[in-house]
Specification:
The protein is of the alpha/beta class and 257 residues long. Helix content is 44%, strand content 12%.
């Protein structure tokens, strides 16, 4: 092989190696970009749990506005609302299946209509709970739900409280009482569990709400309907806007996680 042919082949080989390297870098960059895009496009989920019995009254309206706020943030955020009164389930039955040695779980193991809801929450990026105030507490359905949600979080080894995943939480409470005069204990001791396992909750209150749409049909003489109507006209839209804003904030936080 003469010197000219040798140099020609050497140049071709170097060009081939350079092209291979360039292609390799391009492939790595493309794969990295694809990975980042895939990460950015992961669907976030916000779960809304409606613990009220009525579909079109105060709690439902607040949570609907919260959902609209979350959806208004745009992006890949799924907003799912669950009405507890539509489900057939029990509170904790003390089966202790969540605490079996070698099989302990921080998601309830009892199978019924609540199971998929609890599983969804375990992987969610935000949680909103809403309930009217009955006798100073959340509804029985909400309390039963919270037992099933929180008992698996509690360790009987060291009494720590650990959820599958920490996330922003909003607690919505609606009540007939006024801000100055009410007997509301809200989520009670369950709020401590929520705080320890998920993080400090944001709390939204709607006071002095309408109990019914037509007071003339019911024995409710202890309430001044005119005063309640006046309060509602002054505050209800503000309450709904606060719920909307809270939903949007949660969605934006979820997208940033």
């Amino acid at each position: 092989m003469d010197r000219r042919e040798f140099l020609k082949k050497a140049a071709l080989g170097a060009a081939a190696l350079a092209a291979t390297g360039l292609l390799g870098h391009t492939a790595v960059a493309a794969a990295k970009e694809k990975s980042n895009t895939k990460k950015e496009n992961v669907m976030k989920k916000i779960m809304i749990i409606d613990g009220g019995p009525r579909r079109n009254m105060n709690t439902a309206s607040m949570l609907q506005k919260f959902a609209e706020g979350a959806q208004s943030a745009g992006g890949d955020v799924e907003v799912k609302t669950v009405r507890l009164y539509d489900l057939d389930y029990k509170g904790c039955i003390s089966c202790l299946a969540c605490k079996l040695k070698g099989k302990a779980s921080n998601v309830c193991k009892f199978k019924d209509a609540l199971t998929p809801v609890l599983e969804d929450i375990a992987g969610a990026d935000g949680l909103a709970l809403g309930s009217p105030n009955y006798f100073g507490e959340v509804t029985g359905q909400m309390r039963a739900f919270l037992e099933r949600l929180a008992f698996p979080w509690l360790s009987y080894n060291d009494y720590s409280i650990t959820a599958p995943k920490r996330m922003p939480v909003v607690l919505v409470e609606t009540q007939n009482g006024t801000k100055e005069r009410n007997n509301c204990n809200g989520y009670g001791t369950m709020e401590h569990c929520i705080r320890q396992a998920l993080g400090e909750p944001e709390k939204l209150f709607a006071y002095n709400t309408y109990q019914v749409k037509n007071y003339d049909r019911y024995e409710l003489a202890g309430f001044d309907e005119e005063a309640k109507r006046k309060y509602r006209e002054e505050h209800w839209e503000e309450d709904l806007q606060a719920a909307f804003d809270a939903g949007r904030r949660m969605a934006e936080m979820a997208k940033g996680r």
